[in-house]
Task: structure prediction
Amino acid sequence: MSKAVYIATIEPNSGKSIVVLGLMRMLLGKVAKVGYFRPIIDDLPDNEIDNHINTVVSHFELDINFKNTYAFTRSEVLQKYNQGKPNEVIDGIIEKYKYLEEKFDFILVEGTDFSDEGSIIEFDINVIIAKNLGIPSIIVASGKDKTLEEVAGNLKLAHDTFISKDVEVVAVVANKIANGYDLQLKAQLEEDFDTPVEQIIIPEIKSLILPTLKEIVKELDGKVLFGKEFVNNQTDSFGVGAMQLRNYLTHLKENSLVITPGDRADIILGALQANLSDNYPKISGIILTGGLIPENSILRLVEGVSPSVPIVSVPQGTFSVTNRIGAIKSKIYADNEQKINTSISVFEKHVDQDKLIDSLITFESDSLTPSMFQYNLLRRALQHKKHIVLPEGEDERILKATSRLLESGVVDITLIGDEKIIKNKAVTLDIVIDFKKVNIVFPTKSPFYEEYVTTFYELRKHKNVNMDMARDMMADVSYFGTMMIYKGHADGMVSGAIHTTQHTIRPALQFIKTKPGVKVVSSVFFMCLEDRVSVFGDCAINPNPDAKQLAEIAISSSESALAFGIEPKVAMLSYSSGTSGKGEDVEVVREATAIVKESHPELKIEGPIQYDAAVDMRVGKSKLPDSEVAGQASVLIFPDLNTGNNTYKAVQRETGALAIGPMLQGLNKPVNDLSRGCTVDDVYNTVIITAIQAQGL
Result:
């Protein structure tokens, strides 16, 4: 049984990083503990770590020391080969790999990056390493500047070489394929490969190939004068500003990099003003050549008009700078979340993950980790794409989450707010959003406004609502967003980043209403702890539920747990366990437990039970030795809102757990509330669970 995979390439700049990042995300969604290993890395300056190792380990928060992630540097390998000691290289790699094998359930092994020095023997070394580790491989090749026949032929030759050395090949990846040629290449690969192997085609993604300002600054040894916080800006093109300003402005393109001598104040100020104008494209940055710095009076002016535009001074001349920028091979850095998320999204879009994972993992994981839970959420949301409305479209966190959601392609989004404010805010905050993919509405300017007003009036006139009141209500973003769901113009809503819980859910209670048979709208948090995911309910809605309400909360929460892949083992929490305690509060929990047992005898439930007895096996067995729930509860029902809300926040803050939610239960259509202290991750995850709810769970 293989517990690893070897990612090999056959050439420089193949783009295998996209495969590594996508695979790591996929593996963490299926396996509890995933390790990462690079047998050979490039030589490093003192006190520096390998960039790609740092990117993978930090982004995925892998529990692994840098020294254990690699075996040798390139110069160490070449030295041993020159000394006639190649076996020492293999022995050292095996030793490091075996150390990791004992600590992790699965290991992603990344082969060498080809370079000019020693590249002749690199392919053979990768084959030898994979063979000696006894693990299958995935081979990656680039289609850049190659014919389709060359790409297919190169992959077939590499595949046959690995197979001839008894190394299993589970997939071949043709990367950086020009748009529109995927079907032709697929036909060519099917013709060339007569053995069953997964054939993956990934298109050329411009934003992953072109360099960021950060990479340009590093290559040119530049000095950032303004906009250090925006050095991860993506450059889609670059051009020299040498002509008169009136002529140069006509050559500006979206996300273009302006290269101009440092004494051309007219070009500098003109480009910055164009960046602020609705009539010209946005620029990604300005490079000032020749080591020239504008006069202080110009610098003061620049400082006031350069939001989101890095301005960099470099010592080289304009011609040299232009050539060197054109030759930069872009990399992915740990702090460039945009490129990392793009890589993962592209991989997920173009790879049959279920098929690939079945060929790699032949065992079942015993636990459900937070990474596995989040991966499964994303995969389920992608199965049936839903439309989610976000009424607080002008909030920074909402905009950042929207960028991530669109990058993942997981949902369609409507933002409610002023279109000009939203777009200007995105530019100012350097939030990359493809506004062609976003629906932006302002309630009173919407073509549906009058229809919504009339519908609300008809629904609420029995509550003495008149048309003027209906107009006022439909001008409110929460009411407007909720009406979008009611009318079928959206599938779900997420709000609460700047509004109260009451403001978010009141419209839903008024006309979305509850599901048949449900009397209590309640909530759960999915608490992503270090090694498991627990369901906490109700921590957001019901202040003091009685026994019947508490029982319904427990039933709804257990159904939510099951719907999201968590086996429900329900603990009805109290300050005593079993029959040891008495008192009004304990009796409410005891009665609620009895109601659930009678109505749902198949459900594993225990109550009353204390928190420690519910989650700690040792304590649970000592207090309730015959319980199926004690020590292993996955659904924890709190007796009141005061206890639940404080407990979830205490667990979240003290343990660093991710709290996804609250997710509301019992409504006919999904509306979910955010905390006003929510993070971008909170928004992102809540939108995804809302999309899954909208699928009919």
